[in-house]
Write a structure and sequence with these properties.
The longest helix has 25 residues. This protein folds into three domains: about 50 residues; about 140 residues, Rossmann fold (3-Layer(aba) Sandwich), CATH 3.40.50.10860; about 160 residues, NAD(P)-binding Rossmann-like Domain (Rossmann fold, 3-Layer(aba) Sandwich), CATH 3.40.50.720. A seven-stranded mixed beta sheet has the order 9-8-7-6-10-11-12, sandwiched between helices. A five-stranded mixed beta sheet has the order 1-2-4-3-5, sandwiched between helices. Strand 1 and strand 2 form a beta hairpin. It is about 45% helix and about 15% strand. With about 450 residues, the chain is α/β, with parallel strands linked by helices. It is built from 16 helices and twelve strands. The structure holds NADPH dihydro-nicotinamide-adenine-dinucleotide phosphate (NDP) and (2Z)-2-iminopentanedioic acid. NADPH dihydro-nicotinamide-adenine-dinucleotide phosphate binds next to helix 8.
Length: about 450
């Protein structure tokens, strides 16, 4: 590795030794862009990597709320405003008990690169809370969201920082968050994306991450002579990204045979019935094991990590970070899987990614493959600025063009550095190139 890059990485590991997920994400990026510093030693004097790996601002706050029994509860809220070189801070909010600073720093850091790849003017951020919406009443979720926004509102704005959804934050949560922001600030602006269609949202935003993932993977496999037609696909998770990845892959002629949640996975050799999954997850907020009530012939296994033992041609991990480890990668490769698209953020461990690349599996990294959500959020912002509302087909066409463009860009970048078919390196280099230019142009800030 380039000595400057190696030195920055070593310092970063020392300084953030309690943040394993952030170290993991930074290691992957810095190892990839080491090649750029070999070619451009003049970049070192700008301190680009020291600047890029330190968030511009981290906000941490108390979120008190009252549960349905009248008991006071206290959660921790965060917003990591990582980098605003390209545009206003932009990135989702995650509500999950596992949320901590390490996870939000890894997500915010990834978001800088992802948002750069979209070609649209958005910087990188992430936020959230260790609050668990599961098992809470709508009123409890509303009171939590209002308390969360009672602090967050002073740090965000349509031209400052525009949060969106992520794990545990969907249409319901965005609605409550937006309503309270509007009440506090008295402005109906694009301060959040993923808003409902009647109050400033964009068509296709709900589908965008899953559809975008399949558009990018389709372009990647087509460029190497394959297609989704007739292929067997495994999709992990059963939330927003997983559901719409299933929908688009099926539209392209594939059969999705397994899906999961944190309790386990279902296998349906006839193809997972998406209407049943939508009813269970989107309407009833139920569990994936409930699928057996609709299709008793399917099977449920109470271990979500074993989903990768199901043979498939294409694997789409769409649940959470580090859900696919080295052993799972070996099993997928042995079973003939030829392409992997990361719908989730960093679902494959560093070791798993290495295995896929060594085995010649076509591997689309999350910051490229799942950029469709952020890209469509930027299209939502554009519509809000114009006071216009674009039809479904128009947003979908723009999303597809963006995803195809991202693939071509990362493919080109990997080739130009002599790393053909390594889209991890391609994505990191292509994203970094634009961020570096924007940062250098703006001086030391
Ligand atoms: P949802 O909350 O809609 O769904 C998350 C899914 O992943 C659920 O099936 C959930 O199961 C499962 N899951 C979550 N945490 C864990 C865990 N620790 N172990 C096992 N399974 C888990 O979230 P999204 O679909 O929006 O997000 C999924 C992934 O995609 C995340 O990595 C997110 O960062 C990423 N992403 C999301 C985008 C978006 O636009 N929404 C954009 C780009 C990336 P359970 O219900 O049991 O918790
Ligand atoms: O990880 C992600 O890209 C998201 N959760 C969506 C971000 C956004 O601003 O739409």
């Amino acid at each position: 590795m380039n000595s400057y890059v190696a030195n920055v990485l070593e310092q970063l590991k020392k300084k953030n030794s309690d943040q394993p997920e952030f170290i993991q994400a930074a290691t992957e990026v810095l190892e990839s862009i080491s090649l750029v510093f070999d070619k451009h030693p003049e970049y070192e004097k700008y301190g680009l990597l020291e600047l890029l790996t330190e968030p511009e601002r981290v906000i941490m706050f108390r979120v008190p709320w009252v549960d349905d029994n009248g008991k006071v509860r206290v959660n921790r809220g965060y917003r990591v405003q990582f980098n605003s070189a390209i545009g206003p801070y932009k990135g989702g909010l995650r509500f999950h008990p596992s949320v901590n600073l390490s996870i939000l720093k890894f997500l915010g850091f990834e978001q800088i690169f992802k948002n750069s790849l979209t070609t649209l003017p958005i910087g990188g951020a992430k936020g959230g809370s260790d609050f668990d919406p599961k098992g809470k009443s709508d009123n409890e979720v509303m009171r939590f969201c209002q308390s969360f926004m009672a602090e967050l509102y002073r740090h965000i704005g349509a031209d400052t920082d525009v949060p969106a959804g992520d794990i545990g934050v969907g249409a319901r949560e965005i609605g409550y968050l937006f309503g309270y922001y509007k009440k506090l600030v008295n402005e109906h602006t694009a301060v959040l994306t993923g808003r409902g269609i009647p109050y400033g949202g964009s068509l296709v935003r709900t589908q965008a991450t899953g559809y975008g993932l399949v558009y990018l993977v389709d372009e990647m496999i087509k460029s190497r002579g394959y297609s989704f037609e007739g292929k067997t696909v495994v999709v992990s998770g059963s939330g927003n990204v997983a559901i719409y990845a299933h929908e688009k892959a099926t539209q392209l002629g594939a059969k999705v045979v397994a899906m999961s949640d944190s309790d386990g996975y279902i296998y349906d050799k006839n193809g997972v019935d998406l209407d049943a999954v939508k009813e269970i997850k989107e309407e009833k907020r139920g569990r994936i094991r409930d699928y057996l009530n609709y299709h008793p012939e399917a099977t449920f296994v109470a271990n979500c990590r074993d989903i990768w033992t199901i043979p498939c041609d294409i694997a789409l991990p769409c649940a959470t970070q580090n859900e696919l480890d080295e052993k799972s990668a070996e099993i997928l490769i042995k079973n003939g899987c030829f392409a992997v698209g990361e719908g989730a953020n960093m679902p494959a461990t560093l070791e798993a990614t290495k295995k896929f690349l060594e085995a010649g599996v076509l591997f689309a990294p999350g910051k490229a493959a799942n950029a469709g959500g952020a890209a469509t959020s930027a299209l939502e912002m554009a519509q809000s600025s114009q006071r216009l509302f674009w039809p479904f087909e128009e947003v979908d066409r723009k999303l597809k063009d963006i995803m195809v463009g991202i693939f071509r860009n990362i493919d080109e970048a990997s080739k130009s550095y002599g790393m053909k078919d390594n889209f991890v390196v391609g994505a990191n280099i292509a994203a970094f190139d634009k961020i570096a230019k924007a940062m250098i142009a703006q001086g030391v800030v």
